[in-house]
Amino acid sequence: MLTTIHNASELTEIILDYRKKGLKIGFVPTMGALHKGHLHLVKMSKNENDITIVSIFVNPTQFNDPRDLEKYPRTLSKDQELLQSTASADILYAPDVDDIYPDGIQSGSDIGLGGLDVMMEGSHRPGHFNGVAQVVNRLLEIVKPDNLYMGQKDFQQFTIINYMLKSLSIPTKLRVCPIVREDNGLAMSSRNVRLSPEVRTNASIIFKTLKAVKQKSRILDIESLKQYAIKRLDKPPFKPEYFDIVDGNTLLPVDNLDNHGYIVACTAVWVEGVRLIDNMVLKSDL
Ligand code: AMP
To answer: For residue 57, which of 8, 19, 39, 257 sits 20 to 30 Å off, Cα-Cα?
Structure first.
């Protein structure tokens, strides 16, 4: 039975009780408008913990574009229904802004992110990762989970949060869930509902390009791979913002595939005023 809580102090009391009982807690932070990608994270948490807590909070400090914040879909009662019937989560924490930021919204945070926040998404969305780190840190302060569940879809985000966990010595373990895709390969995203049906279908080009890049990475050099990808993605109404091939640990661009053990291709593509991100691991020795 799903319990919805809007208040941090109420949630803290319940969590204290779980702790006394020695229960293991898994936590899935989201911004709501839940889809199968989110539900997969919940499923992973259910499998690995006694209690699964999901949060829904559209965090204003991570939106660098006020229009995106305004247009972000908010579907709380549908989300509650999904969490209750499909995912069987235990607790939904749906705070309002004052509960998360009792001292008022301060843009950014002073949490050091080791420079991982300035490239790719960071260079196109200034302040975004500071906002993400700020909210995740606050949520972890409240929930204190054993395990935290995040998606490979936001590759740079989970890399940064992993860095934050280590640098702040937060004892929570990060677990990463593979990208859940629509039938045509488009990575599921809460923003996909803003696409017209035709564009949503044609947006499969992003996944197809990533797959082709992975295939061609055996024969082409990095520069040729990037040029190939940009050319393939740059077909109106699609407009690629970047296509980068980076070291999976440092997020720095790689110039030779042979010199790195973990390599990820990452992209952001604009279409119909929506920014779609996706990525694919090209190589992993892990
Ligand atoms: P969001 O609600 O977009 O902030 O996402 C909440 C969490 O769900 C993040 O850790 C995302 O990486 C993850 N997520 C979003 N979309 C997907 C997807 N298609 N597959 C797997 N995880 C996802």
So the answer is: 19
* Architecture (CATH level 2) of domain 3-177: 3-Layer(aba) Sandwich (3.40)
Q: Tell me the pLDDT tens digit for each residue of 54-102.
A: 999 999 999 989 999 999 999 999 999 999 998 789 999 999 999 999 9
Tell me which of 153, 164, 191 to substitute to probe ligand 1's pocket, judged by most ligand atoms within 8 Å of the beta carbon. Answer: 153
Q: Three-class SS of residue 170? A: coil
Residue 133 is inside which H or E element, if any? helix 128-143
What are the residue boundaries of the structural domains of the chain, listed by start? 3-177, 190-279
What pLDDT, in 10s, does the model give residues 9-46?
999 999 999 999 999 999 999 999 999 999 999 999 99
- Is the pTM of the predicted complex or chain greater than 0.90? yes
What distance in Å separates the CA atoms of residue 222 and residue 256, rounded to the nearest whole number?
A: 7
Known catalytic residues are: 38
Q: How far is the CA of 166 from the centre of ligand 1 (A)?
A: 22
State which of 30, 35, 61 you would mutate to test the pocket of ligand 1, scoring each by most atoms of that ligand within 8 A of its C-beta.
30
Question: How far is Cα 211 from Cα 190, in angstroms, rounded to an integer?
Answer: 23
